[in-house]
Amino acid sequence: MVNAVLLRSLPYPDSSPRWWCGTVSQKPGIAKFPVSYGNYLDYKEGNRVFEDVAAFSAAEFNVAVADQAERVPCIRVSSNY
Prior knowledge:
By secondary structure, this protein is an alpha+beta fold. The protein has 2 helices and 4 strands.
């Protein structure tokens, strides 16, 4: 599974392997939490291993068409994602 998901390229153009890094809490009851924008910039600036470092975050937005509105799950990404 590691080979198929992390190491081997995906079947579409520009599909070099991607890695995900996150922050894990040592406090009971908190499994993980987002990386602050400042930490992201530090990781990006200090990166000497990966080709690039990008950021993403889950979000929800209201989308309205005519008189209908709906809450839509989305992902916010950095411009280099």
